[in-house]
Specification:
Layout (H helix, E strand, L loop, with lengths): L2 E4 L15 E4 L17 H32 L2 H10 L2 H16 L2 H24 L5 H29 L5 H30 L2 H18 L14 H6 L1 H13 L2 H21 L3 H8 L4 H23 L7 H20 L4 H29 L5 H8 L6 H15 L1 H22 L1 H5 L6 E10 L2 E11 L1
Antiparallel strand pairs: 1-2, 3-4
Helix pairs in contact: 1-2, 1-5, 1-6, 1-7, 2-16, 3-5, 3-15, 4-5, 4-7, 5-15, 6-12, 6-14, 9-15, 10-13, 10-14, 10-16, 10-17, 11-12, 12-14, 13-14, 13-17, 16-17
Length: about 475
Amino acid sequence: MIINRMNVNLAGMACKAARTSAQIKTPKHLTVKIETFKAFEFINYRFLWASTALFSGGFWLQQVVVGWLAYSMTQSPLVTSIVLGLDALPILLGAPLGGVISEKFDKKKLIIWVYIYQAILSLIFGVVIIAGKESISGLFIFVLLMGISWTINDPSRISLLASIIPKDGMINAFALNSMAFSIMRLCVPAIGGLLIAWVGVGPLFIVQSMLTLSASSVLYFINVKEKPANREPFKKSIRNLYPDLKLGLSFATRQPLIIGLTFTTLLMMILVIPFVQGLMPVYAAEIFNSGPERLGLLLSAAGVGSLISTVFIASLKEIRKPGKVIFIIFAFLVMLMIAMSQNSNYYVGLITFMLLSGCIMAYFSISSATLQRFLPNEVRARVTGLYMMVWGLIPVGSLVAGTIANILGPKTATLTGALILISVITGGIFFCKELLQHDSQNTLIYNFQHTTHNSSTSYKVKSVTEI
């Protein structure tokens, strides 16, 4: 129960003559305060949000173009599903290293260079397609090279966000960050689908390049004064990558909350996203008998669901029991995936994809905020990198989903994913007790012991205090 002390001027309502004070206990059910855009009070967050919006515009344009290009070139649900998930493969091996690198070097500069790298790749690939030299092998190479940059981009961007927002604002900040993706997901795929039909796919990769380059330009305006505690000279930083990675792994494996969040994210990466988003082009072509325009509308409907979900979560000041909310989200996902597998109507499909996307985005907003609020600054980026390794398993789920869809059709594939998910998540209730019981108002203060050897700094947990 939160005790609010208020000075209540009772007499002032009549004549401003006498004043009294009183202590008022606010009922528990009234403690939720609508502060949807609170994170925008921080100017650095505004620039980061704008950059994220521009970058995600390019990302969603790439998703609709790559998905349609892969299916039109191969007519294969398996190849299409693999291509859409291939950019996550480098994260499996590279995300932990990317997390350590983002702690050692300036996060803002790292993200800027990553965006420039992606812009150059998109520009080159767009020119290749305009020249009529496209091939499925070239598409695989392009997606894989883009995925390499995610190993640094994601840990750096998430850690940068966490460094400019206080811990009690994490839920709001991550929800608004997801909202940036959702807004672009709402607008860009539908426009992209129309543009594919009008101008082809080549020019759209050039548009993606311009959006990504614009995102890097906005980041220059972020002014983060705090320097990383782990900042060392370049050569020593490289030499100490393995010990730093080992510390992050040691910390993460001793935290049941981190293990629980990693487990649920693993399920999302293997059993939800590949069986839903990865099969969207296949549903559009084989179930709804639609072209690129309707595929774009499907993706935009998903954006509507994401936007509504993130606005709702951003309006909540706090979620006391995020673990319970996460398992409720999974229950809804199972039901919606089953409904999706039984439907052949395009318009019902629009609503189903919208609801599915809303649940997926709600999960990522809540899980990311819960993790970042829990992590101490000394190991934030490296543990984030380890946590994001599971993103690299999307191709595994894509391979399974694509194989089943190739043989039995996309409906059977989605139903299979839902049935496996419900069995695993039921067992996970017992595996994730710490996550289910976690109270976001309980804060753990980690005291790290700093040791120096050969002019390099390392950290280990000295004590833990709960407040």
